[in-house]
Amino acid sequence: MALIRSVATLGSYTMISRVLGFVREILTANFLGASAVSDAFFVALRLPNMFRSLFAEGAFSIAFVPIFAGKVAVDGRAEAKRFAEDALAILLVALLLFLLFGEICAPWILDVIAPGFRVDADKFALALDLTRIMFPYLVFISLVALLGGVLNSLDRFAAAAITPVLLNVFLIGALVGVRPLTGEALAWAVTASGIAQFIWLMVSCGRAGMALSLPVPRLTPELRRLLRIMLPGVFGAGVTQINLLVSTAIASLLPTGSVSFLNYADRLNQLPLAVIGIAVGTAILPTVSRQVRTGDHRAANDTQNRGLELALLLTLPAAIALAVAALPILTVLFQHGRFSVADARATAPALAAYAGGLPAFVLIKVMAPGFFARHDTRTPVVIGAVTVAINVVLTVGLGLGTGLAHVGVAMATSIAGWVNAVGLSLTLARRGHFQLDSGARHRLPRLGAAAIGTGVVLALLEYALNGALGGNLGERGAALALLLGGGIAAFFALALAFSGIDRVALMRRLRRQTA
Predict the structure, then answer these.
(1) Which segment of 9-23, 76-90, 300-314, 324-338 scores lowest on mean pLDDT?
(2) Residue 464: predicted pLDDT
């Protein structure tokens, strides 16, 4: 039940952030559409997004949290605080050097992540300006990762979970309040939000009794251990982001608007991934780390099994809905202002392709803590290297070698995600660190059957609501709500009917809530 509470806390605050993110994307689509300016902004934003995922949700956290949580459990809060302060000092020095490198080398960085922009001098110049304005955000978001790891290790999930809200608030403010709206205004809003996030979490750590000071940087044995774990983990934990970076590079070689089509589709796909996958993975890591540290491997396996069930219970209906109802969703959310009917039709198949990989991306978040809790970052690196190689080949082949264009790029990302997820799961199982228990073996196939049934129901509902889905905005919105609501109801009804949900545990939980 503690896992469910932690996931609920993380998920609810993440949901607030993602809803605001939707508002931000709707406004961006309305004012920028799928244009050269939007392509430049999304490419420049790719680096901050990648570092947020690598640090806040990835390599730094998976290295720092198990060590910090273990020190809290074994050595006490004072020793843990000293370790966090030393990590903060070393990290700040490294980040400032990286900032200097990034500002100087920004043109060459752009050549890597968007090689196609060189053929359009204006688009390249704009992307270069936006990249340099946003580069300081990487410093603050990386420091935010450390502070968030401290709070998560103390089971203070709320403050860190709500932090990304600030990015969306600042961007929405720029989109609504700045005229004339420029890419530079949006870039400055991103950097300002990073400063605000850092201040917010520094205050939150103080309130949690873990106010961090900044000592003279020193490379202690514990920090050397942290770096040994973290550096290979930058690659292993960031495979999804590296694959998306490859996708952006290939999309930059496609016609103008392709980068934007993929971005809008990915933003929709990221909602359930963040609310469910990242929430479950973040909640599992400290718990599994403590259980492994104390030798309770049976409890660690149980934690991952329950996390897997919970993640798929919430992910499968979302994936089916995004795949089957892609066009109605995009039409209602984005088809306004400069985002045209043609843009919605171009984005819909990319969204469906991304949705096919959504369960895999969530599975990665659930399986990865099984390695990181044991301080094993090498194995995810090896599996990740294979995944990236497969993604590059498929992205080039499907994106450039066929008529699929940006849809082929999205398909390649999803296939690579499944390769990564299956590789992590089989490796954990082979080592005896994870196996499906009787409850998971009973319920997971039934959840899969419920998902297939839900897809049929959604297709029939979409056919029945076809007229309303093609009406005015109010009619489309009402029809979409009915379509998605019917799909959700169908999934949980089928899951209960097929015994894909533990009915006894559910009723016990409901009785406890109403008691």
Answers:
(1) 9-23
(2) 92
- pTM: predicted TM-score of the whole model, two decimal places: 0.73
Query: Which is nearest to 143 in space by CA: 75, 105, 90, 209?
Result: 90
The first and second tokens of residue 192, run together, are: 């300002």
Cβ-based neighbours of 116, under 8 Å, separated by 6 or more:
249, 251, 252, 253, 254
- Answer whether 41's CB lies under 8 Å from 185's CB: no
Q: Which of 232, 248, 267, 221 is nearest to 110 (CA)?
A: 248
Give the CB-side neighbour count of residue 180, counting CA atoms within 13 A.
Answer: 3
Residue in the block written with tokens 């959700």:
488
Give the residue carrying structure tokens 């205050």. 203
With b for 16 or more beta-carbon neighbours within 10 A and e for fewer, the 42-66 pattern comes to bbbbbbbbbbbbbbbbbbbbbbbbb
**Do residues 102 and 409 make contact, with C-beta atoms less than 8 angstroms apart?**
no
Measure the CA–CA gap between 255 and 406, rounded to whole angstroms: 9
| Residue 111: half-sphere exposure toward Cβ, Cα within 13 Å | 4
The residues spanned by each domain of the chain are: 2-435
Confidence of residue 457 (pLDDT cuts 50, 70, 90): very high
What is the C-alpha separation between 156 and 208, in angstroms, rounded?
A: 8
What value does the mean pLDDT of the chain take?
83
